[in-house]
Design a protein that fits this description.
By secondary structure, the protein is of the alpha+beta class. It has a single domain, classed as YbaK/aminoacyl-tRNA synthetase-associated domain (YbaK protein). Helices cover 18% and strands 27% of the residues. It is globular. The N and C termini lie far apart (34 Å).
C-alpha cells in the first residue's frame, strides 16, 4: 500500500514509529482498520499550531484538520465530544454540537483537563485514541480531504491521513454541518 505524503515533509509508516505518537494514539491506531495508510511526519514542536505549521511547511489550511474537545451538561450528566473539522473552518459549537450532545451550554473543555484525560499534548489532540466515553464527531467534509494533516498526540509530529480513512475510524460519527 502506498503511504500518503505531502511535499516538504518526510512520511514514515506510523505503526513503525511508535515514538512519534502519544501512547493512547498508538493504541487507537492499532484499532483503526486503515492505520496502515497513515503516515507520521516529524515537525518543529514550536510550529505545532495549525496556522504556524501550515505556513512553515507550505501546507494549505484546507489540508489540515483540527480536533477540538467540547463538553456540556444535561441533568447533571457531563457529555464530552471531540470534534474533527477542517482547519479552514470552525466547529459549530453553539448549534450543531449543542444539539448533538443535547446540552444546554456547550463549551471547550479546559486545556488542562483535555490534556490530562486524553493523555495527549495540547496542540496534538487527535481523534485516534480518545478516552472511552467521549464521542467523536467528524465534519462530513473531512473525508473529502485528499491527505489530512492532524495531530499525533505530540507537538513534535503530525499524522497524514487519507481523508476517506476517517470513515473507518472506530467510533467516528460523520456529521453534516458540524463546521462552518
Amino acid at each position: 500500500m502506498t503511504l500518503v505524503s505531502l511535499p516538504g515533509l518526510t512520511s514514515l509508516p506510523v505503526l513503525d514509529h511508535p515514538d512519534l505518537v502519544a501512547p493512547p494514539v498508538l493504541a487507537g491506531l492499532k484499532a483503526w482498520p486503515d492505520a496502515d495508510r497513515v503516515a507520521v511526519v516529524e515537525i518543529d514542536p514550536d510550529l505545532a499550531d495549525t496556522a504556524a505549521m501550515s505556513e512553515a511547511y507550505d501546507v494549505p489550511m484546507a489540508a489540515g484538520a483540527n480536533c477540538v474537545v467540547v463538553a456540556g451538561k444535561r441533568e447533571g450528566e457531563e457529555r464530552v465530544a471531540a470534534c474533527l473539522v477542517r482547519a479552514d473552518t470552525r466547529a459549530d459549537v453553539n448549534h450543531t454540537v449543542k444539539r448533538l450532545l443535547d446540552v444546554r451550554k456547550p463549551s471547550f473543555l479546559p486545556m488542562d483537563r483535555a490534556v490530562e484525560e486524553s493523555g495527549m499534548e495540547y496542540g496534538g489532540i487527535t481523534p485516534a485514541g480518545l478516552p472511552a466515553g467521549w464521542r467523536l464527531l467528524v465534519d462530513a467534509r473531512v473525508p473529502d480531504i485528499d491527505v489530512a494533516v492532524i495531530g499525533s498526540g505530540l507537538r513534535r509530529s503530525k499524522l497524514l491521513v487519507p481523508g476517506d480513512a476517517f470513515l473507518t475510524l472506530p467510533g467516528a460519527e460523520i456529521v453534516d454541518g458540524l463546521a462552518s
